[in-house]
Amino acid sequence: MSARGRCAKVLPSELNKVCPERGDDPATHPRKMSDFEVVPNLQQSSSSVSKSRRKAHFPAGSNEKENLISWIPENIRKKECTYFVESSQTSDSGRIICECGYLREQHLDDAAKPPIFLGKEWDPSRHIQEMPTDAFGDIRFTGLGQKTGKYVRVSSDTPPRVIYHLMTQHWGLDPPNLLISVTGGAKNFVMKPRLKNIFRQGLVKVAQTTGAWIITGGSHAGVMKQVGEAVRDFILSCSHKEGEIVTIGIATWGTVYNRESLVCPMGGFPAEYVLDEENQGSLSCLDSNHSHFILVDDGTHGRYGVEIPLRTRLEKFISEQTKVKGGVAIKIPIVCVVLEGGPGTLDTIYNAITNGTPCVIVEGSGRVADVIAQVANLPVAKITIALIQKKLSVLFHDTYELFTESKLVEWTKKIQDIVRSRQLLTIFREGKYGQQDVDVAILQALFKASRNQDHFGRENWDHQLKLAVAWNRVDIARSEIFTDDHDWKPSDLHPVMAAALISNKPEFVKLFLEQGVRLKDFVTWDTLVYLYDNLAPSCLFHSKLQKVLLEEREHTAGSKMPRLQMHHVSQVLRELLGCSTQPLYPKPKHTERPRLSIPVPHIKLNVQGSSLRSLYKRSPGRVTFTMDPVRDLLIWAVVQNRKELAEIIWAQSQDCMAAALACSKILKELAKEEEDTDTTDNMLALAEEYEHKAIGVFTDCYRKDEERAQKLLTRVSEAWGKTTCLQLALEAKNMNFVSHGGVQAFLTKVWWGKLSVDNGLWRVITCMLFFPLLYTNLITFREKRLQPMGCLARLRAFFTAPIVIFLMNILSYFTFLLLFAYVLMVDFQPMPSWREYLIYFWLFSLVCEETRQLLYDPDGLGVVKMASLYIKDFWNKLDICAILVFIAGLTCRLIPSTLYPGRIILSLAFIIFCLRLMHIFTVSKTLGPKIIIVKRMMKDVFFFLFLLAVWVVSFGVAKQAILIHNEERVEWLFRGVVYHSYLTIFGQIPSYIDGVNFNIDQCSPNGTDPYKPKCPETNADNKKPIFPEWLTVILLCLYLLFTNILLLNLLIAMFNYTFQQVQEHTDQIWKFQRHDLIEEYHGRPPAPPPLILLNHLQLLVRRGLLRRPATRHKLKEKLEKNEEAALLSWEMYLKESYLQHQQCQEKQNTEQMIRDIAQRVDVLAELLDLDRVKRTGVVEQRLGSLEDQVHQSAQALRWMMQALRGNGFSSGEDVPPVGSSKALDTKEIDLEGRPEDSQPPFHVLARNLLYPGSHTLRFPVPDEKVPWEVDFPLYDPPAYSADHKDMAVQDPFSLSLESLLKINYNTMDGLIDRQSFHGLYAVQDGLPLNPMGRTGLRGRGRLHCFGPNHALHPVVTRWRRNLDGSIIRKSLKKMLEVLVAQYPLSDVWALPGGSLEPGETLPLKLKWILRREFWPQFQNLLKQGTEVHKGYLDDPRNTDNAWVETVAISVHFDTQNDVEMKRLNSFLQGCDPELCIRWQVLDKRIPLHANHKMLLHKVSTLLGAYY
């Protein structure tokens, strides 16, 4: 039983059979039509009863299904036949069926008892009613793995917006960037294997690269099967993420085989569908490789083509939608791809061409596609009925007998109209575009259609570029858009540049930079705000920005979220870059800056109501450009982890080394907070890559010039927050960079100060102890001014060198420790001695020095920031701890009652002071890394203690509980549980644990002795232990096994791993950590403690009394502007050299060479294949030419024989035939490629099949049958005459002879002028005949008079001028501007004119745009004008008996200050608010009526202007 039987009688028991675990649904019972009307707005489920019932069938958490189940029945309908009328035909099984095609039992109960419709014929419009759909959900194809799609059964009258809402909102499909409608043969057909592969690969490539939807018929046959297999092959050959191609099948519900399995009123989740081709009969199965199905139901069974109208409406609706992606708003383009096909396919192509949809015809696929492909290059005049008949006889040899003469005429007319729109027709020929280039043919077809589309100005170029960006096809943009046909201004590319950035399309960014986009002009303050507004919500930086905005809203106590500004971005960036950098975007004084929003047509880039194009269309004084646009874009790309984009932008940077180090720092900080491990790994890899870039550039700089390279390290970069490259590298912990030889050479030079680095350490120590030796040659200096022996500066230069300060501080610290140890061990008296007072004074100097380090703030960071930076340093924490412990011990020491505790605390302080010595060893290449190892091992021990504590406590508690009863002393509990268990690890096993060595004298039986532990459990008689010795021994053995063997070896392994890890990078670690020591002593006062107090006193006087600013001791250098610019230019030059070197290395890489060779082999194979195809074509062309020559020779011989025969030279013998009929078939070969005549010989618009403003179809009239003189026996046009109720004068719309005889033709008929400009016209049966021939329609159509309908079209023009008044030229010709108008309810523009009412001199439409007082003056202008056309006008409203004749008058204003032109402009007005008037540049592509363009062409020719 089919689906109708399932849904006809929906009882609970039957419903449970069809849809298990689902109850009945009252919506499936028969109802009146009014019960199921769709409300205008898309409804959300409002019925709580039905909603609660539906919820009962799904578990919690299925909100998506619940929404779908509640939404679909309220918005989507199916169709049911409500009246059974027995048909003359029977079903396949011979049973009686209804006119709708269904059996009696497949109808509703009331359908067989029609009291209302009794005796009436079956009428689909009355006897088929809509009701909520009963088939939707997920479809799973059984036996085909996990192939699951979406499906829905819809009424054929469903509004397209409802279906589009279902697909985008409930099915979760993203709006497409392109709509590919594939049509063709619905039955299986054979394609050449090579063509099949090219088509499949090209179709899938264009869908995958552009994000397109593919729409087909959805069945498992014909072209739909080809598309499905193409998608299947692609999915199998790529990853899951890349294999998501939306393939939508729109099929007829009544022709789907096994559709009963899809009927589930509560939704099938999933519905199991069996693909059974063997038993489908005349029906068809759904294709398993489609992802979505829309099954169109019109209430009938077995009738194909029901879905075509709804599919056409849906495709048109989707193509009218606007998709905003990456800031670019584009109307979704649509293209029709045709393979093979029959009559239905021809109709589809004709409708697509009529609607302006570009079509790609695949030649070689057969039937209709080949017919059109073979005549596409012929002039329309050569496409005759005989030619089409010949093509059909070859390509439709199986069904050729079915083509009647009228059908041949119709096909000829449609093919002529299709070929006439060459801009919408693209023929894909194998070998023409190359292998696997169907995707290029499809995209080129769209561009060709867009390029030839009517438009204003540069509108279509913008549209094409937007399409290319949306599709991410930079190859198409290079070949089709950026050509010599159009000159692109860099400013025109700014909006799409922003779109490419937001959409992460680096190839387009690179292309736009090549086309001249200057980042300095592109990046403005508002552009940056726009870019950061469009950060991806999943981006970590976006969430950090939102936190900043939330904090600001809480701080200001406002209810509205503040708008994002650049100082918010700066706040987050400073967290990432570190406090050493100043804010990159300072907060403006006025938070709300004036923003200009100038709406510019053609491109919509909307963010918060502003247009991105308007960001670049403002007054120069209002645009705020940033300090470094490359830096700004680089940061924006890096925070989103966009590798390719950031690389392109970094290549444009000037301060490239600082930029690379800053990017490395930002990425490392973001990686710490990123939760996704894959993203974290990518960020860290990219951070390492940028560190290598910085190293590469610095290496090249250092090789060229060491001094300038070292200047780059310490140069203060204004663009990066007044920090230095060295500081950025240290903040990012870029050990590879800091350990670079050039950086280390610089640090060594700083370490030695003004001393020469060649001085030995023993020399320095000797001169430090005996400073008069400075005036000998023992010590050398780097500066020549310090070379003289008597120079006092030598003394200052020596003692201010960091290495000397370091050695003197070491000597001072050792002296302090020796004196401290002596006092603690020898000279600790109740009253402090002078030595002890010296220690206190020494410690005071240390405290002063630590205070100076804490308050030293040359960069103005603030006390809080400096304190946080100070605390972060481990050695500073150790210093504070030592000082605080010393102060605590000193306090106790000065109180007589706590003298001894004071000495103990001071002893602990001494330990901490000794640990502080390790910091001194960091300068040693040998000991420095060992200190790092010790610090890391301490971390290992800390975590290891958690594991050890588990075993120690567990064993200790168990041992204590087994051995000893109720020990109440806390100290002995701790000893028994922790202390003894811990000592057991090192071999000190308690003697009493096994009872052998038990001695009761060593313990206290009652636990009263404070110096003895409590005795274990013993018996009362002999005082022997009674605890289970076997258990305690086993526990002890297990404890020692796990702690001594397992855990301690684990600790050793952890230490070994840490050691190996550090040891591998010993050199890097030492070189990195020595910087901190060098910087510390570079900025430290030269005197050692306690003499350092003198320096502190000097500093206090200078800062406190004299108010002098702090001197910068940090490794920073502020350069002059000229010097800095020269240095950066030099760095940029070497960066370019580095990038070129990197490219050369990549090319020399083995893997890259293999890829290049493989690519070249593929290209070579393709060229050889193309050459084979071309050779075949050349041979065929030569053979055709030879046959043509033979045919011409045969004609000449035939003429000669006829001439001889006419002169009596004939013989009685039979004359052999000259030439073959086959040669006649090849005459059309040379016709291909000939340009068609610019002006068709017959009217074209007047023969459009669909008459405008009605549903009337004209009789098809091919070009050859247009003249009345040509015999056309089949010609039987329909009649149509509209009734214009708003017109006072109109001819009768009835064609009765009585009413027609009252009309006087070829003369003035009252006020109506029925005279033609072409002379007398024929009148037949009371009706005039169109002088230009047949149109396919009788009557007067929408025209108000039979015969000529006179019109007037003024063509008002002026020269297009620059601001200075000079005339603009193009192609050496002057350019015109023409006055055009757009009338209400019209989509196109027109000349200000139209039909003349009887007795009027000016058209009504012209009066609409002119004030009444200007009408006489305009008539005078018309009299002074030049007549450019007078006669017949090819108009779509023309019929066989009524036509438009017009007079076109050129009114041209030659001068800029023409008084009449100014008056005309002042009197232009619209009587309707929807009426638009404008001066438009004259161009052949402006969107005007086709017949009006012909008039403009004549005017431009008359004036010698550009057209």
Structure description:
The protein is an alpha/beta fold and 1507 residues long. The protein is built from 50 helices and 32 strands. Strand 2 (86-90) and strand 3 (96-98) form a beta hairpin. Helix 6 packs across helix 9 and helix 26 (677-704) packs across helix 43. The radius of gyration is 47 Å and the shape is elongated. The two termini are 67 Å apart. The model is unreliable at 1-61, 591-623 and 1218-1237 (pLDDT under 50).
Radius of gyration using CA atoms only:
47 Å
Outline: elongated
DSSP strand count = 32
**Structural class computed from helices and strand pairing:** alpha/beta
User: How much strand?
Assistant: 5-15%
How many helix segments? 50
Rounded to the nearest angstrom, the distance between the terminal CA atoms is 67 Å
What are the segments in which pLDDT stays under 50 over at least 5 consecutive residues? Answer: 1-61, 591-623, 1218-1237
Q: Determine the mean pLDDT.
A: 81
Biggest sheet record: 10 strands, mixed
Question: What's the helical proportion of residues?
Answer: 40-55%
| Widest sheet: strand ordering | 10-5-6-11-9-8-7-14-15-16
